[in-house]
Amino acid sequence: MGLHDAADLPAMKTNPKFIFFTDFDGTITLQDSNDFLTDTIGYGRERRRHMNIECLDDRISFRDSFRDMMDSVKRPYNECIQYLVDNIKLDPYFKEFFEWSLKENVPVVVLSSGMEPAIKALLEKLVGPEAEKMQVLGNYAGARPGKSIDEEGGWEILFRHPESGFGHDKSVTLREYSSLPADVRPTMFYAGDGVSDLSAARETDLLFAKKGHDLISYCAREDIPFTVFEDWSTILARCKEITAGKSTVQDAAKEGWEAYKAGAAGVKPTA
């Protein structure tokens, strides 16, 4: 459903020609913070990876697999956030990309299945005060009945869209922008890496899928155009070309498919 006034959308306030939407965990950061919590202080990598595959193969919803993961993390919520701040690292080229985006009026919108307070704390630590210029939309955390959020076993994941199998259906936000009238609608980029990005994959003009990760396998299986990135230097170079009119989103997607078929996307191509 289209909106009558683009000014209702936060990222449209500066009338941008391009908007960059992005996943957070494992995309802006080198590690997925939720995987990190689950692997190190939850039930461990083996079961977590099993749940990822179950989700990728449509045997369980992302919402239910993610709740299963987060329920295994028992540490108080404030300790979890500090644990992440102490351990999660930023992609070394993201800050350069973000500085370019501010200069070129390319708003950055973070769409995450992680928890907003943790994401904002990490961005403030890793990017600095300018990080507040990024809109962040994610899930939440709340206290379990009869408990405090900051006690052992006291918190649980609260989904932005609990009725959706995605928990946070990223397509909802993307469609608000893609349904704008053609004369104001910006070109939309999206970057992601895994199962939390499946709801966003079809909703953007150019999808950046991280080399060697599950999102590439999904896109190849579902015939969704994408281009491959290894880090944010790849994304920055490609965005500079497109925003300067030296390349197109179609060119980038064609190269992504060719890289996949040639075995250069870090994922074994299907026959």
Automatic annotation (TrEMBL):
The keyword Hydrolase applies. It comes from the Eukaryota. GO terms for molecular function: phosphatase activity. The keyword Hydrolase applies. Keywords: Hydrolase. SUPFAM superfamilies: HAD-like. Pfam families: HAD. PANTHER family: PHOSPHORIC MONOESTER HYDROLASE, UPF0655 PROTEIN YCR015C. This is 2-hydroxy-3-keto-5-methylthiopentenyl-1-phosphate phosphatase-like protein. It comes from Massarina eburnea CBS 473.64.
